[in-house]
Amino acid sequence: MQKVLKDGGRLPLATVLRCRVRYFTDGAVLGSKAFVALQLAAYHQRTGRRHQTAPRPLPPLTEWGELTTLRGLRRNGFT
Questions:
Q1: Mean pLDDT, consecutive 10-residue segments, the chain of 79 residues?
Q2: What is the rounded end-to-end Cα distance, in angstroms, of the chain?
Q3: Which of 6, 59, 61, 73 has its CA 20 to 30 A from that of 67?
Q4: 3-state secondary structure of 69
Q5: Any bridge partners for residue 32, and if so which?
Q6: Residue 36: exposed, middle, or buried by beta-carbon count in 10 A (0-12, 13-18, 19+)?
Q7: pTM
Q8: Where would I find the H helices in 1-79?
Q9: Among 16, 20, 40, which Cα is nearest to 28's?
Q10: Residue 61's CB: how many other CB atoms inside 10 A?
């Protein structure tokens, strides 16, 4: 896995998800861009906070399709 990533390759989505559940927990919300935006709007409505944030793409490790997350990861998930 490390060699593929080091060489600039991509991994199959199933491999990435199996190895890194971290995207589900660190990202706070995981889903389509519309779903993440809806969850963010609901959070703003409940809390009154108005931080300027938007759904963020996941790192280019694989073809994620339309998956996005609320928060970006602070570190590479494969180090």
A1: 77 73 68 90 83 78 80 59
A2: 11
A3: 6
A4: strand
A5: 67
A6: buried
A7: 0.60
A8: 2-6, 13-19, 22-26, 33-47
A9: 40
A10: 22
